[in-house]
Write a sequence for this structure.
């Protein structure tokens, strides 16, 4: 292993600013040591690498670019027992192997344990905008499970807002087939959010196929979904108007006033269902994933402001 001048990469800057002191210290020390030339034979891939799909044509194209212009950003490694494990830059590593190079420029982090590897990899790759939305969402989910933390703590660790984390993970509610379409870049994350607004699984699958066949933009998808939901709601409203009107007539004026007050707070339809004057339920309606996220943020702020003992809401 030899030294080589020059540093680079938004990812390393992100690691240095990490909330985790162990990661921050290792990143600062790696930057001080500078870029090293590491034997490729000593490098192993990361089993927790969020990226699972590597396009061979892209790898070969990257290899040709490296052959012509050199490597702009070094890969990032973790040293472990005399070997090295990739934190980020597996495509660049594969490109160097394709070129039959013996060494690859790398920034090397030392004294990092196994529990930090996924977090390191995710933060570095996110800063490079190097991951597909599904890969990011799956990594968030794995981190929450492996580290036994909540969305808010994860948001602090990776430098994102809690709503960004929850919105990202929501696309995992889509079927595996639709998730694969995102992985293959046949539809975007924006398309996926429009599809999520549909509740019927068969309708989601059919709409995903329709998006690809017709080349719909995200804006067009949102309009189509909105129109379809309005049509469905119109039909349901026609069927249920008489029943609802009868219920409204019988509803206690105090309950109706409470509903009006809550609707002003949440800017959406609220239904208070009183069973016997002692118990019941409050139904707050939402009409998109972003609308749900907005309502959840409001509830959490109310929780924090009132210093309630109610546990943090998860969804």
């Amino acid at each position: 292993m030899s030294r080589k001048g020059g540093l680079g990469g938004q990812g390393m800057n992100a690691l240095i600013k990490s909330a985790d002191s162990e990661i921050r210290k290792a990143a600062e020390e790696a930057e001080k040591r500078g870029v090293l030339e590491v034997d490729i034979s000593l490098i192993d891939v990361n089993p927790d690498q969020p990226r699972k799909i590597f396009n061979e044509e892209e790898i070969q194209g990257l290899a040709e670019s490296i052959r012509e212009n050199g490597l702009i950003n070094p890969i990032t490694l973790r040293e472990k027992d005399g070997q090295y494990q990739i934190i980020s830059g597996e495509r660049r590593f594969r490109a160097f192997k394709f070129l039959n190079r013996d060494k690859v420029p790398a920034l090397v982090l030392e004294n990092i344990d196994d529990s930090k590897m996924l977090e390191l990899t995710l933060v570095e790759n996110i800063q490079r905008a190097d991951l597909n939305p599904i890969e990011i969402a799956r990594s968030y989910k794995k981190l929450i499970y492996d580290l036994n933390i909540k969305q808010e703590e994860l948001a602090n660790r990776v430098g994102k807002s809690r709503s960004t984390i929850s919105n990202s993970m929501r696309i995992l509610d889509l079927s595996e087939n639709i998730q694969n379409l995102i992985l293959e870049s046949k539809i975007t994350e924006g398309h996926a959010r429009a599809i999520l607004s549909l509740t019927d699984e068969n309708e989601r699958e059919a709409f995903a196929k329709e998006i690809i066949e017709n080349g719909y933009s995200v804006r067009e998808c949102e309009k189509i979904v909105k129109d379809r939901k309005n049509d469905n709601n119109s039909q349901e409203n026609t069927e249920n108007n008489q029943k609802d009107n009868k219920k409204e007539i019988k509803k206690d004026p105090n309950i109706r006033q409470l509903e009006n007050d809550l609707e002003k707070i949440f800017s959406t339809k609220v239904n208070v269902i009183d069973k016997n004057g002692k118990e019941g339920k409050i139904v707050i309606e939402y009409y998109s994933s972003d609308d749900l996220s907005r309502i959840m943020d409001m509830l959490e702020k109310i929780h924090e402001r009132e210093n309630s003992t109610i546990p943090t809401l998860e969804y």
About this structure: Confidence is low (pLDDT under 50) at residues 308-315. The domain at 2-114 is CATH 3.90.1530.10 (Conserved hypothetical protein from pyrococcus furiosus pfu- 392566-001, ParB domain).
